[in-house]
Write a structure and sequence with these properties.
Strand order of the largest sheet: 2-1-7-4-3
Number of strands: 7
Order of helices and strands: EEHHHHEEEEE
Largest sheet: 5 strands, antiparallel
Helix content: 25-40%
Number of helices: 4
Strand content: 25-35%
Structural class: alpha+beta
Shape: globular
Length: 101
């Protein structure tokens, strides 16, 4: 499954805003596709928001590509997830997606 959070490429964007998620992520987390797209990764990750921003920055700069987090699901349960980040090219920008397993 995968989730693509907005990276911090410019100050006009909201770092960590989820811009896309696949059907497997929607099913796993329990929110609708539209609900997930209205969230920030900080809404799912149980780390304090400042720590999440630091982790996003490490993924963006490719300091790290593998992470282990605890993520919150719609039913309130917490699950351990492995996250692998990489870059995808779109016509607008390069965005580091998070692949969770």
């Amino acid at each position: 499954m995968w989730i693509i959070p907005q990276s911090s490429f410019s100050s006009s964007r909201i770092p960590g805003r989820i811009v896309e998620a696949n059907d497997a992520a929607v099913k796993y987390y329990g929110w609708s596709h539209e609900q997930i797209r209205q969230m920030k990764i900080q809404d799912i990750n149980t780390l304090p928001p400042e720590d999440v921003r630091k982790e996003i920055e490490m993924a963006r700069t490719k300091e790290r590509t593998h992470f282990e987090f605890r993520h919150r699901r719609a039913d309130g349960s917490i699950r351990d997830v492995e996250v692998f980040s990489g870059t995808i090219d779109t016509k607008r920008e390069k965005t580091p997606p998070f692949h969770c397993s």
